[in-house]
Write a structure and sequence with these properties.
The protein has about 350 residues and is of the alpha+beta class. The protein folds into two domains: about 45-125 and about 280-335, GSPII I/J protein-like (Pantoate--beta-alanine Ligase, Chain: A,domain 2, 2-Layer Sandwich); about 130-210 and about 230-275, no CATH class. It is built from nine helices and twelve strands. The protein has helices at about 1-75, 95, 105-110, 140-155, 160-170, 200-205, 225-235, 240-250, 255-265, and strands spanning about 90, 115-125, 130, 135, 140, 210, 220, 275, 280-290, 295-305, 310-320, 335. A six-stranded antiparallel β-sheet has the order 1-2-9-10-11-12. α4 (about 140-155) packs across α7 and α7 (about 225-235) crosses α8.
């Protein structure tokens, strides 16, 4: 009897163990299936958000191009109190889409659509153009002087400027006579790519508000440039005079270069059509979309020639969510070149 009881006990133990293993296996399979389903839903949601964000940001870019085209239609100088220069503060997207904000349908859509859009248009000719440094495969002495004044004002090493100018010359001159052309870096198209020319990341961050990279030689727009850029681009001009020009244009924008010259009579010939203007052809359009926990930012360079406004390049970056999504930059950006 004792042997039979022990045998039955062992059978019950084996059956219990088998049941536990079966339950564990089923639970593991169920968890795996649930995880795969959750992953598929997350991937589909992320892809849908990416496509929707691309559509919305493309629409925002087209809207910006329309604003610039209408500004060109009106003519006259470009200055900071024009409609294109007014930044779009973060606003719920449904406020743009609702035809009647008092209707119940609009309120229902407003409750469901948690999408926010912000952006701005910046005059790129308010900066010093790096490509102005090269003229006819040679370093332009007047423009090198402008960058020298800017580097001195910002306390940046002149050795980096010399290296940048020489590397830029080699990158621009691909003729067989240039022995250094084979080792020259690629021509930069973005300000962050100045690192290819030997500029340190710290210097690039310092230069960012005052320097740009445009595909052709352009003058500085005195109606939109900062006092630092006006000072750097104008030989013999003092910083106090540059600040005075900024104060004067705030009261009334400059309609032509002659108006600017009359404000600084002790610096004759400093304002020239080759280096300065009161109009702009190149703009950077920045759009930022916040879709629930996803923040996507896009930068586009557009060129305006008359009523024709074309996009030269677009960069899109998904930013890590942060409490302050209105900041211009955020860690962890993953740039994605679109053109």
């Amino acid at each position: 009897m004792n042997a039979l009881a022990r045998f039955k006990n062992r059978q019950r133990g084996a059956a219990l163990l088998m049941a536990m293993l079966t339950v564990t296996l089923v639970a593991s399979l169920a968890a795996t299936a649930l995880w795969q389903q959750w992953r598929a839903v997350e991937i589909e949601t992320a892809e849908r958000a990416r496509v929707q964000a691309a559509w919305i940001l493309t629409g925002a870019l087209d809207w910006s191009r329309l604003i610039l085209r209408e500004d060109a239609r009106s003519g006259g100088p470009d200055y900071l109190s024009e409609p294109w220069a007014v930044a779009l503060q973060e606003a719920r997207l449904s406020s743009f889409l609702a035809a009647d904000k008092n209707s119940s349908a609009s309120e229902s859509a407003d409750d469901q659509l948690d999408v926010f859009l912000s952006g701005q248009i910046e005059d790129m000719q308010s900066h010093l153009n790096v490509n102005n440094l090269i003229a006819g495969n040679k370093v332009s002495a007047p423009d090198l002087l402008a960058f020298t004044r800017l580097f001195e004002l910002l306390g940046l090493p002149q050795s980096e400027l010399s290296k940048m100018a020489e590397n830029l010359r080699n990158a621009s001159d691909r003729t067989p006579d240039n022995a250094s052309a084979a080792l020259a870096p690629l021509l930069p198209q973005r300000i962050e790519q100045l690192a290819w020319l030997g500029v340190s990341p710290a210097s690039i961050a310092r230069l960012r508000p005052y320097v740009c990279v445009l595909p052709e030689r352009v003058p500085v727009n005195l109606n939109t440039a900062s006092a630092e850029v006006i000072y750097a681009s104008t030989p013999d001009l003092r910083m106090a005079q540059a600040q005075r020009l900024v104060d004067e244009r705030a009261r009334s924008p400059f309609r032509n270069l002659q108006e600017v010259g009359r404000l600084i009579p002790d610096v004759p010939g400093a304002i020239t059509a080759g280096n300065h203007s009161v109009t702009t052809r190149f703009f950077e359009v920045r759009g930022r979309l916040r879709l629930e926990s996803t923040v996507i930012e896009e930068r586009s360079l557009v060129q305006r020639d008359g009523l024709n406004v074309k996009t030269l390049w677009r960069d899109r970056a998904a930013l890590d969510p942060a409490p302050d999504v209105s900041s211009a930059t955020a860690p962890g950006a993953r740039p994605q070149s679109l053109q």
